Amino acid sequence: MSDVRTRALTGWGRTSPTTARVAAPRNPAEVHERLIGRTDRGVIARGLGRSYGDPAQNAGGTVIDMTGLDRVLDLDLERGLVTCQAGLSLHRLMELVLPFGWFVPVTPGTRHVTIGGAIGSDIHGKNHHADGAFAQHVERFELLQADGTVRQVSPESDPETFWATAGGMGLTGIVLSAVLRLIPVETAWMKVDVARCADLDDVMARMADGDASRRYSVAWLDCLATGASLGRSVLECGEHAALADLPARPARDPLRFRPRTLGGVPSALPGGLLGRHSIALFNETWYRKAPRRKDGHLKTIAGFFHPLDGVRDWNRMYGPAGFLQYQFVVPFGAERTLRRIVESISAAGAPSFLTVLKRFGPGDPGHLSFPIEGWTLALDFPAATPGLAALLDGFDRQVAEAGGRVYLAKDSRMAPDLVPHMYPRLAEFRQARSTLDPDGVFVSDLARRLAL
Amino acid sequence: MKNALGAPQSLLVLGGASDIALATARALIADRTRRVILAGRSPEALERAAEGLRAPGVTVETLEFDAADVDGHEKVLGEVYAAADIDCTLLAFGTLGDQAHDEAHPVDAARVAHVNYVGAVSAGLVAAAALRRQGHGSLVVLSSVAAERARRSNFVYGSSKAGLDAFAQGLGDALHGSGAQVLVVRPGFVHTKMTAGLPAAPLATTPEAVAEAVQRGLRTGAHTVWAPGALRYVMAGLRHLPRPVFRRLNI
């Protein structure tokens, strides 16, 4: 068992460390071995640790680091079907398939997530309104179950297990591999229309008008703007660029994908580098540097989808206290709740770096999948922000009352009593989980904290 | 589990009827705490305290526990930790003694030391083993400014708290990397049942302020908090006073 180490783990927000026996298997047989060799405090799979809170932690138990299982098992370039192990990252997958003119169907704000994590959180991207969440593009997956057996699961063969696992935060078993449907692209470039929006009404109106015709759309919102500029934003709408859209130079190698990292953030930074003033300054710059309006602007895939991946370990910028992300969705019709929350953040002066607003399309079939049709807002706050606990508790209540919900993959602080209101299919999920894992072998800090 | 802002969901209080303990329990219940176990010597006092804490959605249990009975600690506390994870254990028992009386009655003085120090060593180690096993959780130890430097006027109590404080610091280092936190709380003079009738010292504070300091320590993952915070600097100064000067200070 030389690959098992006892160590403290946190999520990307670097809050709430807990200690587990972390195993790093290299193949499915070793995963099986670690599952069988567990203690009574259970097992959870972990990918690249990009969830902000505690879903990939299991205090006192076993955590299986899946990143050693990162092989592509089959690639069908005719149909755009890839079979890969669950620990493969979207970053690596893009590097492998882009040269052949294929792209991942859904990518979140970072490429550094694993396929297993993408299914477990049923992640979404800027194209949710057009393409839905990640699991809708999964043909089938292999699930290692609590009893040690491996089951092939597809939405047709076993919808109950498939949709309990999609968004199920790893609590139904361990995804070992998956078959994913890719989307064809002509180039590794994005054709982007950028526009500054003066305030919240402006950006919401433009998004409501324009979303239907655009595959990708997102607005970066300055949550510290006040008064008449409350909610001022930079709206970006994009499509994959066609070969004909590229000027001569990039057209010579249109599928070139070499995202660069500017370097990392050192591990021991003092706290408070990202505080109210630096964030206000950043937000101001972000808004001012955007053109008032520019159509057909070419951006790289990395520049459009993953701006923060350009700085390795950017989460360390928040210092030892860490930070937390708060993402919620409220249905269309609950715009007043959204506005009230943006107003409260602005009034409280709670500094959020890169606040993201987007519109979701119809909800996904996963029992605990996050997206529902409506507006979603994602905010990052330094954990040391005064009054943050009460502020966010208030938002939880407003979101739940409006029929919305908070994203489990990002949560690190919610109270358990609101979860059944936010996720009305929780009972169905619990039913499926108790059938699949009657002894509760798969458990995480998130599951304990929210009594999932 | 504690959440990202350090709010625990379950709380075990050793010395469960003390004012500081109850103020802390109230503050934590106002946040995320939904399960409380009050452990202490007097079932009646605990039941009264429990009644005061109960609220919709909050369960409060009581448990007979004697800090002085170190032989029973492993069994009594072991059962609590075995039943379910405890996110926060508050070690709040302690006795002030009566300095003048205790100086004349060595057996009573030894009892102060036995409860405040020996009892805490044994209970603290039982808690530490449980935290190690569960891989998370906080042990909050109520020390005192008196632990920083023993004063003529209450050195029996002060020395017992000094022992406790040193023990808790060492335990915190031993648990480093285990996922568990040991938080040493050093309040100054607190207006409570225990200090009723005594003349208040400068920078006197309230149980609620101590509770707030505990919450702050849980949120930041600190190893030490003072209540009020200014005492840290006052004591840093007092600590370095020459003995002849310190002896003459009327504190």
Radius of gyration of chain B: 17 Å
Could you name the CATH topology of the largest domain in chain A?
A: Alpha-Beta Plaits
Shape descriptor of chain B: globular
CATH architecture classification name of the largest domain in chain A: 2-Layer Sandwich
Low-pLDDT parts of chain B are none
Topology of chain B as a string of helices (H) and strands (E): EHEHEHEHHEHEHEHH
Distance between the termini of chain B: 41 Å
Q: What's the pLDDT, averaged over the residues of chain A? A: 94
Biggest protein-protein contact in the assembly = A-B, 32 and 22 residues
Trace the largest sheet of chain A across and list its strands: 15-12-14-13-17-18-16-19
Dominant shape of chain A: globular
CATH class of the largest domain in chain A: Alpha Beta
Physical arrangement of strands within the biggest beta sheet of chain B: 3-2-1-4-5-6-7
- How many domains make up the 3D coordinates of chain A? 2
Residues in helices of chain B, as a percent range: 40-55%
Features:
heterodimer, A: 452 residues, alpha+beta, Uridine Diphospho-n-acetylenolpyruvylglucosamine Reductase, domain 3, Alpha-Beta Plaits, 8-stranded antiparallel beta sheet, 5-stranded antiparallel beta sheet, globular, B: 251 residues, alpha/beta, Rossmann fold, 7-stranded parallel beta sheet, 9 helices, 48% helix
